[in-house]
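Much of what follows relies on a compact textual record of a protein's fold. With that in mind, consider the following protein and its fold in token form.
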Amino acid sequence: MIEGFGAAATRPVTLRANTLKATAEDIAAALDAAGIAHQTVAWYPDAFILPEAQVSDLWDLDIYRNGKIYLQSLSSMMPPLVLGAQAGEDILDMCAAPGGKTTQIAALTQGQAHLTACEMSIPRAEKLEANLGRQGAKNVPVMRIDARELDEFFRFDRILLDAPCTGTGTVISGNEKSLRGLTEQLLGKCARSQRALLDRAMGALKPGGTLVYSTCSILPQENEDALQEALDKHMDCELIPLDGTPSESETRRAQEAGEKPRVESNALTEAIAAGHVSSIANGMPGTLTIPPSRDFEGFYIALIRKHS
């Protein structure tokens, strides 16, 4: 993992096609016309890697100015894919600014889901609203509230909680700026907030609903420790493994039925099985810790479902 922090210094520009406005083929053609080399991403057809470009190379292109692309790290594209949002569902992006994952969910559902975004910071909420408009993500209300205080009235089919964190997965070796502010005090503040957010998220799920919890941290205090505390409190929720193993409830069902247990899959589990994405062991099997590398920021992802 240590080598990954050094490789982060040469991490290439990555982006995804905003399929509310353009196809991946449209973006590839525009990049070709601009003479910008690009590579496809095996596990996400809408994503591109630009191995030689700088962000500034995109600024004058129509695809950038008109919101046909969104600059986003490959790691941060993963949680919306795991979420698996469908048209017609009630979906909450719980800590949404600046809007990368919110607009990705809108694109994945072609704007047909009932998507709500939540952001407590007024300046960040304004940036979120601007990005939603630029990306053509219509009818996405932004609630300017602290998601920890979300009213009990609200219930959702799917919730994405990409929680504020210390950002230890984004540290770059030798870059003092990336280390600035990383203190025990910050870790404690983030850990308390994450636990409160998880508590509220699990409470806001409809029966049978799913929650994706993610951070750009690699610290267990912010990831598996926080999640385990929430699961211990919310006994009506369970972990859905992302490592190719069945959930506890599915294992019990299969044993009672004398069947082989079913394993749930998504774009990320398939990418890991194919060797396109690496993960490392952590304190909660079934959750994923993506180590930092040249292509990926360090990231943590877990999938939870509330019992029907």
